[in-house]
Each structure stands twice: as C-alpha cells, then as structure tokens.
Design a protein that fits this description.
This protein is an all-alpha fold. It has one domain. The protein is built from five helices and no strands. It has helices spanning 6-20, 23-27, 37-56, 64-88, 96-119.
C-alpha cells in the first residue's frame, strides 16, 4: 500500500512541512505576493495531492463514488493540518477559508480527471 502511494506520501509530507513551518520563513521566499495568494497556493497544493492520489489509485477508483471517497483523504488531511496550525504553531492560524480552498483544489482535480477520462485518449481509459 505504501509503495503504491509513494508519490502521494511525498506530496503530503511537503504539504505538512509548508503548513507547519514558521510563516516568517515562508515570508522570506521571493514569491509573488498579493492579497489571496496563499488561498491559490492552498488550491494548487491540494489539486496536486488529489491528482497524484487519483493517478496512483486509478485502477481501484474506476467508479465516480470511489473517486469522491478518495477525495475524503486529502480533505480530512487538510482539516487536521488546519487544526494543528492553530494548536501547535505560534506563527500560523487555522482558517476555514484555507480548508475551503483545499476542497476547491480537490474538486478541481476530480473534475479534471473525470473530463480527461471522458474525452481523453483511449489509452488513458482503463
């Protein structure tokens, strides 16, 4: 199971690091900064996590309900990280808006996968 989902685990560990590291460290990075930029980053991180989860488990989530059940993993993962940000970090706070943008990234990945499966090349289908 772990070997099958190694990339998902790696992406999840990167998200844990970025979510729980000091915000002062991240503020020093030369990134594009504007109001709401962190929400876009949340959406992208969880889009990538869900995309990798779908890809690694594409044979076992052939039906749409299975894909949405798989989406519960990154959703609850994000919920736990938001709670941990509030409880164990001093420079971070958990936010319901972050959780909503995490969910948006998850849903975008699901929609992207379903569209790619429907309209993609024959070899993408399984």
């Amino acid at each position: 199971m772990i070997r099958k989902n190694i990339f998902s685990i790696i992406v999840a560990l990167v998200i844990v690091y970025l979510s729980l590291t000091s915000s002062e460290r991240i503020d020093k990075l030369p990134l594009i900064k504007f109001s709401g930029f962190d929400k876009i980053v949340h959406c992208i991180m969880y889009f990538v996590l869900m995309s990798v989860l779908i890809y690694e488990n594409r044979k076992s989530v052939a039906r749409i309900p299975g894909i949405f059940l798989l989406g519960l993993i990154p959703f609850f993962f994000g919920l736990i990280l938001e709670l941990l940000q509030s409880w164990i970090t001093t420079t971070r706070t958990g936010s319901i808006y972050d959780l909503l943008f995490n969910l948006a990234g998850i849903l975008f990945a699901i929609v992207f996968f379903l569209l790619a499966r429907r309209f993609g090349k024959e070899n993408f289908r399984y």
